Structure formats: structure tokens, C-alpha cells
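Can you give me the bound-state structure? Components:
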Amino acid sequence: MSFRLLRVLPLAAMLAVPLHTASAQQEWESVLDEARGQSVYWHAWAGDTRVNDYLEWVKRRVRDEHEIELVHVKIDDTGAAVSRVLAERSASNHDDGSVDLIWLNGENFAAMKENDLLYGPFAERLPNFALTFPEHNPEVVTDFTLPTEGYESPWGKAQITFYYDAGEVGDEPPRSMAQLLTWAEANPGRFTYPRIPDFLGSTFLKQALIALADDGDALYEPVAQSDFEAVTAPLWEYLDALHPHLWRSGRQFPANGPELRRLMADGEVALAFTFNPAEPAAAVADFELPESTRSYVLDGGTLGNVHFVAIPFNSPRSAAAMVVADFLLSPEAQARKQDISVWGDPTVLDVARLDEEHRALFDQHSDHPALLPPEALAETLPEPHPSWMTALQDAWQARYVGR
Amino acid sequence: MSTGHRLVLDEVRLVLAGSTLLELDAEIGPGEVFTVMGPSGSGKSTLLAYLAGFLAPAFQASGRVLLDDSDITRLPAERRGIGLLFQDPLLFPHLSVAGNLRFGMPRAMPDKAARVETALAQVGLAGFGPRDPATLSGGQKARVALMRLLLSAPRAVLLDEPFSKLDRQLRHDMRRLVFDRLREAGLPSLLVTHDREDAEDAGGRVIELGQ
Amino acid sequence: MLRLAPWLIVTLLVGPILAGLAMALLPAFGYLPALGGHGFSLDPWRQLLAQPGLARSVGVSFTSGLVTTAISLAVVVLFLAGVSGSRLDRWIRRLVAPLLSIPHAAAAFGLAFLIAPSGLLSRLVSPGLTGWERPPDVLIVQDPWGLSLMAGLIIKEIPFLLLMCLAALPQIDPERRVAMARSLGYRPTTAWLKVVTPSLYPLIRLPVFAVIAYATSVVDVALILGPTLPPTLAVSILVWFNDPDLSRRFMASAGAVLQLGVTAAALIAWWCLERLVARLGRQWLARGGRGNGDSPLRLAGKGLIGLATLTAFAGIAGLALYSVAAFWRFPDALPQGLTAAHWLRALPALSGPVATTALIAIGATLIALALTLAALENEQRTGRQPAQGRLLSALTLLYLPLIVPQIAFLFGLVVVMESLGTRPTHALVIFGHLLFVLPYVFLSLAESYRRFDPRWSQLALSLGTSRNGAFWRVRLPMLLAPMLTAAAVGLAVSIGQYLPTLLLGAGRVPTVTTEAVSLAAGGNRRVIGVWAMVQASLPLVGFIIAVGLPRLLWGNRRDMRGSP
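Here's the bound-state model for the whole set.
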């Protein structure tokens, strides 16, 4: 009887609170042991000095705490890291890859997972993963409607946030897609969006489609299951009407979000949007944007998603990569990341469910006029199925490229 | 110093693309200046290149060159012991005057500094050792070039129109200086020129090419 | 040992390129087992041809290659023809080196900021002269015709072609030729064009081909200044290679092969143009016009090269100003304040990449220099020199890395290197850089080396020095200045490499250039300004040493200054 109980207890405990069991604890200890002294090459987009500075801090912390040598491999396009892993697979390098950790989500994750380029599942093995309370927050285990199945670990959140120069626009920026068109007609050349296939630009298409489509539910199933032409017709009608009033009359678009921000900085446009709610405030602090910058989200909410870190299948240092991923989920690291003066990237932890001590870390007050209060970001629209992104990109290019 | 060396050209024949450019059979004794005259294109320079060991691969040569009875025909240029004096003094611009003089001195030669000083004094350039060669006059350069040649202790000397670029007065003085020094050292010399006066001052046998 | 040098060079340069091309060719026809492509098919090509705007991409790539080259060459030739030794001329010649040392991307950023509707020029005259309170909504930078792209390329290709011409000119003794023509009644500039150009062109023909190849396939400049809807072919290929949808790799490879074809087509078109110009030129020569339009020609040459130089430096100055700017918005001509914050933020991150950049650049340059010297010395000793300007001599292969577009073979090369079991290291990156550094070092040094008076070595030998002694004690010190210049060119080339560093180093070998490009992705012009300054100053250090060291060493050797 007692013998049986002993065997059953850990199992029951594992089901209840999986990562606090003795065996999970032991297993994690062995991961920590293995990780000690390893180097982790983390391929991460490096277009923002604030992100880079934060990664520097992470590097120092994991060195002190876990004796891991973290190297930030600075890339300008996540696809470059995916290419690298693919090249290694092409050359039959199955166990000595040069990429240990990638910052990614959406299409890149879908592509790597589909082609078996990822290691895992590992996310559930990270002790701090429990702090995201996935059972209450499905977005941390769902990447563009695809279940992550533990092949990537959540790191931060993004949500489409509009920002504008109040000195020019006043207090009444357009708050819906319909108002945006009216506003653009009244202010020709003062708004634009990044050109497709940029991630942010494509998200704008999806945001518009969600607002305009008659059958919104179709967007959460693979595109092949619906009539693409019919569903997207209102979108093209809208864009055809909008483009003549855009910056450069819609004959040219900025390459990406940062370039859109630069157009704001140069005064070439007066209204823009970003995926990082803290970006406008940070840019004001960096002298890029004017003090009169303000931000908001559209009525009815905007698209939001979670970004993740994943480990390539051939990383020889997956233990250390997991330890880094776990550290990134620690309340200390998450709170620092959310700090507007550091980066301002919203946490993926369920702060309300954390214990008091940890919750206090997130008690950050900022009255920066360009920064939205957290409650303003409450209305998040979930991302459509990733196949829609590709289909929209192809259709947009066929329609607007080379004219 | 005048132990006396002897340079023998044994049935030397130079051929370019199947046609004979020049044939020569001569013996040059110690201190003798043997003059080869001829217009441009007669093969004078080719002869010098052949004797010094720089013949371009386009030419074929037959015959032998003997220096003090040893066959040097197949030796590389640096081991032939044949010194050269060009039209230009060609003092190495990156070395001082003394550096130029030391350049050719055999490695084992003792008292290099003293020898350099003596050599400079012999041609009226005492104290010129540290100077930049670019600051010397044409005549001074020519004298340094001559002393550099002699200090390298050659066993024979080739002269490639060495006076043609000097002005008239200087040319006369230089000729006397050069020929005296060569005789004194007992070196067999071969002079190539198209200036008849050079040949007369040399005072040795003269042959004319291309006739 | 020495005899192996030419073969070593050819193997080092040709092997990787052919291997890389092969690895682009296979996926282009559907073969890439890692992505499930086990058979051959034409699907990648069908997919490629279905890309919207492909014809336009190809058109812009092709045209910008030819137009850039034609204009750069015309400006350089006109300038040289009108050179009179005035102070302005000397200044322009002196600016060649610093201009060359400005990395392409930095020059492009500078130009973009200069000419954009919200750029420096527009700010200087606004709102005073223009009345613009806001930037005018006109399309200048990234115009669909690729005009701004061509302008950016021309600014960078002019100094390169000028340097190549200056290196080749002494061989053909232009002063004597012009003097002769002038004695026959030709005006000086016309005389130069008629008697020097026909002999000069064959000597710079291969560098001209390199410019065409570069301009048709450039990535970084096209990203900044090139058209966007659609972008140039090379940029599209890069986008496809990095597309999250991995099945696009097949199409990207087909694109890489197409790029090779576009570059080849541009070269062939240029070759036909050459024939045409030669025919027309002969008639022009034979007509015997003495040059009534002489002064306009001379002024055009000077004016255009002056404009190009000024533009490049103004752009860089704008970036420099931005690197210390606080808030600075249109239409302010100057920033509202200056701050060191951007520099202070970058400084801690600088030391690593700067050290890596220096290590790789010095490593690649030293190897290139050693191989070049070995090959050239071998040429001297065997008395075999390649015929000048001949297209088919073995050393023409030196130009292969400059003529085959990087984007066509680099992705394949990475796979080849991985298959060979080489892991990304500094050594591998140095090897990759060598592909591009070696040709430039060879080109820069060959002329001086071949023209070096053979009597110096003969003299040294006749004074009893061995061949090696003559090399070390005479040739090397006397050729120090051109050697250092060649080394500086090599350093500059290495420092500017982006794709080879990124791809072969797997991003693990961060150089100033890879850092600059990845930070530039953030679009923050202040950060770009800081890194562009750093990126431009490193090669400049090389050029300063190249000019200064001989002067320092040969301070009291008059004939060693400015020679040979």
C-alpha cells in the first residue's frame, strides 16, 4: 500500500503542478549542470539598440548565475538564421549547428517546424514556463493559430499601436479603418504602411481585413478552406481607395517598421503604427520623434501576438539554450524587459497570478505622454491562420508590384 | 690587389628566333678593357645580359664563358663574380651613400666601415657616407657607383655605356677614373658603347658588331 | 615554391566560385534534398517567372549596370583629359583614396539623406526659399527607374575607375603623346581623348567589366537607394533566400542563376557597345577635328567629378552630424542640439567588432599580399608576363570573383563549406574575404611591380646578392609605397564585405560592417551615423598609414617620396 502510494504520488503531483516535482527538479538540475560552461549563440534581430542593450544585460546575468557565455549574433533578418540552419541540414550537419537559439514567431516558426528544423518539445521543461499560466493564456502556446507544442518558448508580446504627431493631427486621430480612409483623404501623403512582405505591413493588411471582411471567422482556418477572392474583396476595394492618398501616392512604401518610424521622424508622415507599444515613447527619448508624439489603439482592438525563442534541431548546446530561455521567462528578466526605460516589451507572464513578491517587480509607473497605459492594450485581436499572411502577401504583390 | 683575373668568351653565339644575332670568341686579360661597338639592335645589350646571367628566355645561346679557367656559363648571376656598371649610376634610393657601398661587400669582409670611408676618400667624397644619394650631383653619383662596384670585389666587369649620360667634361674625367681603377684592380672588363671616344680612351682591343 | 603561387591563386579564387555556383544551380532545377527536392524539375523557374514585376527587376538591374558604368567611365576620362595639374586637380586626385574608403552602404545612406524630400539639401533651403513647412511629397530616393540607385553607384565607382586609370596611365606616357598631338594643332583635352584614350581603355577594360558586374548585382546600395516595387533582381533574390517560406529557396536559387545571366548579358551588351564606340571613334579620329569644343569638355569633366566628390562628402557630413544630433526635424537646417549620447551608447559595443574587423582584414590582406608578391616575383624570375589587356590570359581568372555576382554563388558556397565540415570561424571568413581582397591587391600592385626597372635587381645580383636577397633588400623596400597602397585597398575591400562575412561566419564573426548593417535595420539614422563613421574611418586609417609610413621611413631619402 505504502509502496504503491509512493509510486503514484509523484505522478499525481506531476499532473497537478508538473514542474515542482522531485523528478522534474532533478531533471532540470541535470540540465543546469550540463549547461554550465557552454556558449549559446543567439541569433536575434538587432535593429534596435534598446533590444541589444537588454540582451547585453541578459548576457551578464546568465554568465553570473549559470556560467553560460551568451553571444548575441546580430542579424538584420530572422530569415538569415533560418537559412543558416537549412544550409547546415543541406550539408548533413545534424549535431554541430552554429545556431543555438533564435528569436522568432509566425511564419518563421511555422516554416522551421514544418521542415523539422527545431529541437523539442522543450518549453514545458522550463521551470519558469509555468508562470505564464498557459491554461489561462492560450496565446503563449499558440503562434499565429498554430499550437507551439513546446517547440518554442514565449518571450514577449506585441500589439499594433498607432502613434501620431499631436502637433499636426490634434486630439482626434482616426480610430477605425473607415476613419483612417477619411483621414487620409483629408490629409493626403501623411500616412503609409510598410511594403509587403514586411511583417508589420502584412499585419496591417490583416488588421484591415478583420475590420472589413464579412466573414471574419474564415480567417482563423487555413485559407484553402475559404473563398479567398470573396473574403478579401472588401480589402482590395479599401486599399484601392486608400493608396492614392498615401505617402508618395502609394507608389512607394517604407521597407519596414523602423523606416516608417524614420518617416515620422523626418516629418514625412504624421501617422504611423508599430508592433511595440513602447516604441513611440522610446523614440521620443532618443530624440527621434517630437515631444508631441501620442499613441493609441483602434476602437475594437488591434492585432497582437507573442514572440518566442526556439532551439534549432542541430544545436549542440541545447541545454544551455534552454537555461537561457528559462532565464528570459524569469520575473526578474520579464519585469526588466517591460520597463519602459529599458525596452518596454510587454511581459508574457500572467502578472495577476504571480506571488506578491514577483508581482511587485511589475509595478512600474510611467506617465510618459507617448506611452499607453497597460489597460489601453487590453483589446487584443488574435492573429489569423499563418496561411492567410502568405496568401495576402502574394495577392498584394500581384496587385501593386510592377505597375 | 692586382692578382689578375681572366675572362674568356669561348665561341659564344647568341640566337634569336632561329637567326644568329652575334658570334664572339675573345680572351680578356687582367686589367684589359675590351670594347664592343655597334649600333642599336646589334646585340650588344644581349651580349651583356648573357655574360651577366640575365639572358631573356627568348634567346638561345651556345658557347662557354670562363672566368679564371672556371666555367661560369650555367652559374646564376649572383655567383658569377661579374660586376656591372650601367648608363645610370642606379644608387639605391632607400639606402645612404655608405649603405650603397656596403650593399655589395662580401659578408665576411672585415672593417666594412673603414673600407667605405677609404673608398669615398679615394674618389674625393670623404664624409659623404651618411648622405642621401638623391642629393649628390651626377658626377658624384657615378663615382659612388664605381666604388660600389669595386667594393663588391668582382672578378670581371661589364660596362654598359656608363658614360653616355654624363656631360662632355665630366665624361672625360670619369673615363680616366674608371679605366684607371679597373686596371689597378687587374679586372678584365668588357665595355659596350657606340661612342668611339669611349673605345679610344679604353685603350684596349675594339670589335665592331653589325658590320 | 614560388612557381606554385599562380596556381594557388587561381585555385583559391576559382574553386569556391564554381562550387558555389554548382550549389545554386542544383536547387534552381529542383534538387535540394534538405527541403524534400529529390528530383529535377522546372518548377522553380515557373515560379520565378510568375513573380510580379520580374521583368522590371531584371530591366532595372541590367540598365543600372550599363548606365552606371558608362557615366562613371565618361566622367573619369573627361576629367583625366582635362587635367592641367592645377590645385583643384591635385585635390581631386588626393581625395580618391578617402572616397574609396567610404563603404558603399555608408555612401548610399549619406546620399539618401542628402537628396530625400526631407533631406539635408531640402532642409537647407526650407522654408526660406521653398516655403515648405513639411517635406514635399515627391518620389526621389528609391525611384522606380533606379535613378537614385545609379547616382549612388556612380559616386562610388568614379573613384575606383579613377584609381585604376591613374595606375595604368604611366605605362602609355600620356604627356608625350599629348605634346605630340598638340604640336599637330590639337587642343589639349581633344588631344588627350584622341591619342591617350584608345591606348588607355584596353588597360582598364577588366576593371570596367568588374564595375558592370558589380552594378548589376549590388545588394546593399540597392536596398537603400534602389526601387522597391519591385526591387532590383539581386535584392529580390536576397528577400527570397530569407523568406520564412522555405520552399522559396528553390525559386531564390533560380533567381541567382538568372542574376548570373543578367550580369553576363550586361557584359555582352557592353562588349557590343565597345565595338560600336570603337567604330565611331575611328571615324572621329580620322576626321581630324582639332577640338573647337575643348573648354566645355574640360569643364564638364571637372564639374562632374567635383559634383560627385562633393555629394559623397556632403552625404557623409550629414551622417556625421546626425551621429551627434539631438532632435532634428524638417525643416531645421541644423539639429536643435548636439549630444554625445549616441556615441556613448555605441562605444562599449565597438571594441569587439573593431578588433575582429581588423584581425580579418589584416589576415586576408597579408595572405593576399604574400600570394600576389609570390606570383609577381615568379613572373619576374621566369620572365613570363601576361599580355596586357588580353581577355584570355590565365590571370584574367583573378577577375572571376569580381565578375560573378556574390549573390549567385555565396549561398551555395556556404553549403559547400558546411559539407566539407568546416565550421564558421575567423579563418573561414578570412578565406571568404580573400576571394575579393586578392584580386584588388593584385590589381593595385601588379603595374608597379611589372614596371619596376629590372636593372635594380640585375645590379643587386651582380653585386653578389642572391635572388631572395635582391627581393628583400631592393625590390621590397623600393616598392614599399605601392605595396602599402595595395594593402590599404585590400583592407578597405575586406572591411566593406557584408554578405561573405555574414554567410561564412554564420553571424558569429561580428565585424563593424555586419554590426552596422544589422543596426541599420532599425532605421535609426543617428545609430547609422555612428556606425557609418566607424566603418568609414577604419579603411581611412589604412590609407593614412599607406601614405604616411613611406614618408616617415624615407624622411631623408628624397627619391623614395612619391615614388616609384
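A couple of observations. Chain A has 15 helices and eleven strands. Chain A touches chain C through 74 residues (CB under 8 Å).
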